[in-house]
Hints:
With about 300 residues, the protein is α+β, with helices and mostly antiparallel strands. About 40% of the residues lie in helices and about 20% in strands. A hairpin with a 5-residue loop joins strand 10 (about 160-165) and strand 11 (about 170). It is globular and about 55 Å long. Bound molecules: zinc ion.
Amino acid sequence: MHTREIGKNLFQIELETGGFKNLICSYIINSAKITLVESGPTSSVPKLLSGLKELSIPFESVEYLAITHVHLDHGGGAGTLLKFLPNATILVHPRGMPHLINPEKLWPSAQTVLGFVSEIFGKPEPVSKERIIPITAGTIDLGEGAKLKVIETLGHASHNLSYQESFNRGVFPGDAAGTYLPEFDVVVPTTPPPFYLAAALASLDQLIGLQPTSLYYSHFGKATNAVQRLRDYKVQLNLWAEIAEEGVRQNWSFEKIRDKIVADDKVLASVIGFVKHHRIYTKTVLENCINGFIEYAKQKQVS
Ligand SMILES: [Zn+2]
């Protein structure tokens, strides 16, 4: 079993990407119009399909594939997945849409940023334009009174959307609210370059305004105490920004900035052993996400 019921009409599918548990998941909203949230990466599409089978959901009955953003681990598998879902339409931010239609440009840049991790995720296949609904805000009718609210939550990416489902009033933040480590009940930043701090903080305020009951992280799983968690994430982002700004001002090396963040961020410090020894997180959290803040601080200095 790799599906789990996590709320009313709501299931989580463990994608076990690259054999890693608790790394990436997709969600199924079992409304009249069946909706998937996140395709996950290309390499995980067979796992997602077997999740649908496990729940006896026919592939033809899926109406929407809601994607938070087009990074490989969230929307990378969309093109491959749609081959199996003949009636599904994709919801995505208009700025993400061109990358779904033509992933050729996205792939080399993902390879540069993610290195070997991009190979684990797999190369995206194109999606035909007719199967995409570009959207930045509004409400999608999921039938029988159920709704999916679309919220533009930029910062992590220039095109990250969040979604709120009406059955439980939980939110799918994509990467707008960090990475949740369910083993420790702890959140760490998801801030690879280009990272936009002001937009990220404004997005968190918007999500707090929705008063969500839970957060359904793509990395990874359902977390309760949503509003407090979003507030704590704002504090964490501000702390990282302060350190990166000081480091850039003082010309510190990458290592010095990283070590200062690890020393001063009590939340990160509490899981540093796990993160450091995790093949993916050591690259994403301790390298890419710190670089996101350094780039941000450099930009701020010149502007
Ligand atoms: Zn992302």
